[in-house]
C-alpha cells in the first residue's frame, strides 16, 4: 500500500510541476470510484489505451487489504484537479492565441531565435507530456483490475473498440442500406459527416470506408475512390484488401485508366504486404466485381490467373485423423433420387425461400364450415383488404417525413431501411402479425413482436441482396453439380463439404456466394420492428358495430398498446381488441402463413463450409445459435480454422431424408379435431378452457374476502386460458406442417448451440420434438429388416412402454412376443380396441411401432420387409456416464451401463429403490410423511431429478420436479405434496452421493475452477476434442435504453464482453455445459463413423436413431467412438493417468 500511495504522490507532484510551465493536452483515464479491485461496470480489458468505466457498479473485490480504498480516492482527486487545470489552461491558451494573432497582423517578420526557443520549449513540453503519460500508464496498470477479454487474440486487439462495436455495426448497416436503395449522395455525405466529427471518427474502421468506396467503384468514379483513400489517411487507417480490390475494380471499369495508375496501386499494395492472389481468395465479390478486378490486373500483367487454394486441410484432432486419412473402406450413403429429381427439388425450394413465406392449409380446415364461420371469414377478408390500404398510405406518408428528417446534419434514421423492400411487402409483413390462428387474448410482448417484424424484413432484404448480387444463379450452377455426389445414379465418393469447396474453386468466376454483408444487430431489428408496430397500433381500426349492429358506430383500434407487470418489471405489450379475437376464433380460418425457414427443406441442405455459409439456400442461418446481439461466439469461430469435423457432422445429420407416417398422422388429427386428449398429449380446443369470471370490484354486495377470492379465480382462469392457447397453437402448427408435407420427402438442416449440441433449424416440426411429433416421422429410405431387424423392433417397442427396464434384451424380446395380440390390436384398432398402446410412456411412438411390427409379421418374409421405421438406442443417463468415466467410479459406471453386465442396468430404478429403502426406515421410526409416501415412490417420480442433477439442478429445482410428478399422481393426497417433495428431494440427492462418489467431487471441482476464473475477470472457455471453441456468454447485466415512438424499451444485456463475468452463472453453468460439450463430441464422432459405414444416422442428443437392420453396426461404431474419446481428451484435462479399458 505504501508503495502505491507514494507513486500517486510522485505522479501528482510531477504533473503539477510540468503544468505550471506548459499547456498540456492530456486525456485522463477514469478509474472506478467504488474502491474495489473488480467493477461490474463497463470496465474495459487490458491492452486498451483509452479505456473508460461508465456507470461503474459495485462488484466483488479481487484484492483484499488496506490498499483497497486509498489509491482510488487519490486517483479521483487527481482526475478532478487535472480537469479543472485543463479548463484554465485552455482559456489561457485561447487568450494567448488571440494576442499572437494580433501581433502577427502588426508585423510579418519572425525572429529565427524566438522560433528556435519556441521549438525548444515545444520539445521540452512534449518530453514532459511523454513522461506524464508513461507514469500514468504504469500507474493505471497497477491500479486497474485484471483484463477479462475473451481470448488472447481479443486481448491483442484490445477492448477499446468493443464499446463502439454496436455503433460501428449500425453505421455499416446504414451505409449498406443506403447503397442498396441507391441513395448514393446520402451515403457519401453521411460518411463525410462521421469522418469530420472527431468523436464519431473513432467509430469508423477501414471496412466502413470500403462500403462507400465500393459504391463509387461500381460507378467507375476513380476521383471519388481516391478521395476515400485520402479520408483513410486522415483517419490514420490503412487500406486493406477490400480497399485495393475496390480501387482496382474501379480502374477496370474506367476505359481511359492509365496502366501506370494500376501499376502504382499494385506497387503500394505490395508495400502494404498484400498479394494479388489474396484479393481473389479472401475478398467477397458481387455481380461482375471480380471480372473488373481481373481486367485491371490483366492490363498490367496479361495472362495472369488467380491461384485459388482448396481449403480442405485435414482435421488436426487425433480423434478423426484416421477418418480423414484412411478412406479406402468408406461407403458414403446415397439418396433415393436421381440427379434430375434433385435439381427439380432445388428449384422448388428456391421458390419457397424467395417468397420468404409459405401459406398452408390448417388441419382445422377439415371441420365442417358453418354459416357463422363463413360469415366471419368474409368479414375478416374484407377488413384485411381495408387494413392493407390504410397501412400502405400510412407507410408512404411516414417515409416522406423521414426522408426530409436530418438531411442537414446527416444523422441516420430508419428511412433507408423502409426503402429496402416494396411498400406492399412491408404491409404484408405487418398484416402477417394479425393473420393466422386466433391471437392470444392476453396479448404479446411488444419486444417479441418487434423482433419478429424486424427479422422478417431482414430475411427478405438478405434474399433480395443475393438476387441483386447475382449469387443465386451461381448457387444453382454449383448445386446442380453437387447433386452428383448425392444422387443414386452417379459415382462420386467424397464428403459433401469437400465436394462443395471443390466446385466453388472450379467455378470461381463471377460473384462470391458469401458477399460479406453486415448482419443486423438486435437493436436495429427492434428499432425497425417497433416503428412498424407503432404504425399498426395508430392506424388499424374497425367499426365497433361490426358484430352487433345495435351499437353506435365508431372506429376503434384493433390493437392496443398497454403495460403490465411481469414479476416486478413493467413491460409493454400489444393486446388485440376482443372483437378481433372473437372474429378470428369463430372464423376458424383454414390457412396458416409461416416464414419459409419454419418449413423443412424440399432438397438436401447446402453443406456447411464455413461458419457463415450453409443450411438454407437463401435464408440467412447462423452456425452457432446465441443470444440476440451476442457476437463473441462468431469471433471465436472466425479465428478457428479447424472445424471440418464439426461441419461434416452437421452435414451428415442434415442429409438424412424424412417422410410422414400417414396412418399415425391421421389418427392424431382425428383426436385433435375431437376435443383433444390430455392423456395422449393432444391439447383440447379453447372451447374447453375455463370461463374467465367477471365481476365489478365496486359492487358493495361482495365482501372483501369474496372479492379477493374472485380475483384469484380470474387470475388462475386467465393463466389456464393462456397455457391452453399456447399448447393448442403449438400443436396446430406442428400438425398443419406435417399435413402439408404428408406426400413429400424433406430434410432438416442442422446447426448447434454454443456448447456444440446440434438442433434442426425448423423450430416447430422436427425429430427433437415431443412424442407426438416423433411418431409422425420415418426415414424416407427403407431397408430390409434382415435376420434381426424384427427383434429390434420388438425390443424398441418394449423400451417405449417404460417396462422391463432391468430385463435383458432377450427378456424384453420374450415379453414382446407374449403381448403380440395387444400389439396387433393396437395397430388395427388404435381408438376402438383394447388401447394397450395408450398406457406406454411414449404412447404415440409405441403406436407407430405397433403398426410397423404388424406390417412386418404379416408380410410373406419379415426379413425382406422394407422398413422405414427409426429404432432408438438411448443413453443411460448420459451425464452420469461422463462423470463416472471422469472419476473412475466403478459402481457408478456399472449403474449406467459403462461396464459390461449380464442385465442392463437402470439408474433411475436403482435410485428409486434406494430412496424407497430410506423411506421405509424413516416410516418405521414414525415419520409421518414417510408413511404417507408408501407405495408412491417409483422410477417416474425420481427420473427427471436424477437425470438433471448432473446438469446442475439445485435442490429447489429438484423439489419442483418431484412436486409436479406427485401432482400428476391422482391417488396421492395433494395436501402432502409440498412436504413430500421436500422430503424426497433430500433422499434423492443423498442417494446419488452414495451411488456416484466421484460425481459430486468432480462437479465441485469444475464449479470452483469456474468461480476462480470468473473472479479473475475472465469468462470460462475451453475447446472440445474436435476443435470447437466454446465460451460461456454470461456477463453481468447492463441495461440499454431503446427509444421509440411507441415505447421506450429497456434491454437487459447479459452478453456484453465489456462487463465483468457473472460469477454465479459462470460457475453454476460450467459443469453441465462441459458435460454437454463432451456429449456433443461423442455424438459427432459417432455420426462421422456411421456416415463412413453407409448408415442412416440421426440423433436426439444422446439418443441415436438408425434402421432396424443397422442397429448392431451402429452399436459397434458407438463403442469405438466412446473408447477413442475418453483417453484422448478427458484424461489430460481431469486425470493424471489414462483411463482403464472400458
UniProtKB/TrEMBL annotation:
Indicate the enzyme's highest-level EC class. transferase
> What are the Basic residues biased-composition ranges?
85-102
Compartment(s) of residence:
Mitochondrion
Q: Name one GO cellular component term.
A: mitochondrial DNA-directed RNA polymerase complex
Chain intervals with Basic and acidic residues compositional bias: 74-84, 114-128
Residue ranges that the Swiss-Prot or TrEMBL entry lists as coiled coil: none
**GO MF terms, alphabetically ordered:** DNA-directed RNA polymerase activity; mitochondrial promoter sequence-specific DNA binding
According to the record, the residues making up region (Disordered) are: 34-128, 140-162
List the protein's name.
DNA-directed RNA polymerase
Quote the subunit structure annotation. Answer: Homodimer. Component of the mitochondrial transcription initiation complex, composed at least of TFB2M, TFAM and POLRMT. In this complex TFAM recruits POLRMT to the promoter whereas TFB2M induces structural changes in POLRMT to enable promoter opening and trapping of the DNA non-template strand. Upon metabolic stress, forms a complex composed of FOXO3, SIRT3 and mitochondrial RNA polymerase POLRMT; the complex is recruited to mtDNA in a SIRT3-dependent manner. Also forms a complex composed of FOXO3, SIRT3, TFAM and POLRMT.
Please give the Pfam families that the UniProt record associates with this protein. Answer: RNA_pol, RPOL_N
Q: Which gene carries the instructions for this protein?
A: POLRMT
Q: Which residues form the DNA-directed RNA polymerase N-terminal domain?
A: 347-655
**Reactions this protein catalyses:** RNA(n) + a ribonucleoside 5'-triphosphate = RNA(n+1) + diphosphate
Positions with biased composition (Low complexity): 34-49
Q: Which family does it belong to?
A: Belongs to the phage and mitochondrial RNA polymerase family.
